[in-house]
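Late entry, evening session. Most of the bench is empty. Finally got around to the prediction I had been postponing all week. Sequence below, unchanged from the version circulated by S.P.
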Amino acid sequence: MSKRSLIERMLDKWPAKIICLIISIFLYIFHQTSIIDKRNIVVPLKIVENGLVMHVGKVPSTVSVVVRGNDSDVKSVVPSDFEATVNLDEITEKGDYLIPVKISLSEKLMEFDPFEVKLKNQQVEVSVDLKDIKYVELVPSVVGEVAHGYTISSIEMNPSFIEISGAKSILDKISHIDTTKINVSNAKNTFSTDCEFLQVSKNFTIEDINHAKATVIITPLEYEKQFENNSVQILNLDDNFEIVSNLPKINVTLKGTMPDLEPYEPGKNFVQLDCSLIKSEGIYSIPVKINYPKKFQLLSKSFDTINLKIKIKRIDELDNDDENQVNEQEQIFEPTDENLKNENKDKEHKDIMLSKVEGAVNNMIQKENNISVNITDTQ
């Protein structure tokens, strides 16, 4: 077939052939369009800040990605197939910047064909500040009340200071870091516990440590207590003497720990006067002795000494005392065989008492004679 005849055959009925070609192209495009799908996917945005600066303020946490491809491929796409990042490592100065968003695809998406990816926002605006490091105090947070009579004298933290890093403008506002709550309810003794940190902002990080040890030092409260109107107990006064002056009531103030001193009540021997050195009539200044447990401290007493006026008992008083003692003996011992055996002992006791009476009378007579002699000499 000649070249001319081939051209003639191609041009034969050419309008119909052109129409068929157009229809074929339209059908192909329609087919391709029917199997292509489009989908919008929200992808987390990661900020890379390993350099001299870090972001401050609000930054979008996600970006939108539009994907196009075969229907089955598009339906299988998930957000984890993408990695959207904003890199701040090249920035060295504080300020506001428009940073391009970089999108990376997983190996699965790289095998799709056809497949198209388009970011809705190609750039994001980021405010950055220079990074800084700072040491701040770790402050314990306490909840509850210790037992009655006790107090928290101190809380020792280990470590007591921690290192934080972040934007300088953020760190300048941070003076300390609080711990999680430490419960001290009804505690009486020192104890230790682990606690974590309360990070109030995400714009700084705590370096190399995530917990601390708190030692809570608990001690008893100091306490003062006054004991009023205490009676005086007389010790070691000879039976031949009597006190003719009035004895005052004594007020005493003690100091100690509240758990010990608050419930303490003194006994009958709390306030005492030792009269063992009194050998004759007269006026004596006797030191006031306070008896209290060694764990307490004596702060004050209303009298350091008490003046006692001492006289010898009258003869009739001594007789009455002797008779009272004899009567007491008679009341105690009934006339039984066993009591008769102790009759000699009772007699000896009576003889001793009579000797004391005679001694007291002789002393009085001697003093009267001395007074008479002195008066005669004076005359």
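Two things to note before I forget:
Residues 343-378 form the longest helix (36 residues).
Residues 325-343, 367-379 have pLDDT under 50 and may be disordered.
Will write this up properly tomorrow.
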